[in-house]
Amino acid sequence: MKQEELLIIIPKIEKYIEYILNMLIKLPRVEKFNIGSEYKKSVYNLLKNAIYINKVGNKIEYLNTIDAELVLERIYLRIMYSNKWIDEKKFKVSMEQISEIGKIVGGLIKYYAKNNKK
């Protein structure tokens, strides 16, 4: 079952990245190149680490890295929303997608910690 979750997380991250990239394109010009660039690096790191989970032994380390990136992305979203660079709908949809990915990651962390698999 956990292998299936590993396979499910990558398409969810891809869908999330697609949504975020479309959102970032519409940011004000200055912010598109500031917070937008940082956000893009973060989502690509998220995908990279998700791919590494399937390929490397220390799964918990990569899952914790993904979890940390998700926290960072929540902060970026709150900043963009509070500055009115994105509307409430984009904020909520993005947060829901992050939450869904986060739940999978949290379940995987618990699974691998419990079973001591690296």
Q: What is the helical fraction, as a range of percent?
A: over 70%
CATH second-level architecture? Up-down Bundle
The CATH topology assignment is de novo design (two linked rop proteins)
CATH H level: which superfamily? 23S rRNA-intervening sequence
How would you sum up the global shape? elongated
Number of domains: 1
Overall strand count: 0
Quick overview of this protein structure:
Helix content is 86%, strand content 0%.
Structure notes:
The protein has five helices and no strands. It starts with a helix and ends with a helix. It is mostly helical and 118 residues long. It has a single domain (2-115), classed as de novo design (two linked rop proteins) (Up-down Bundle). The longest helix has 28 residues, at 88-115. The protein is 86% helix and 0% strand.
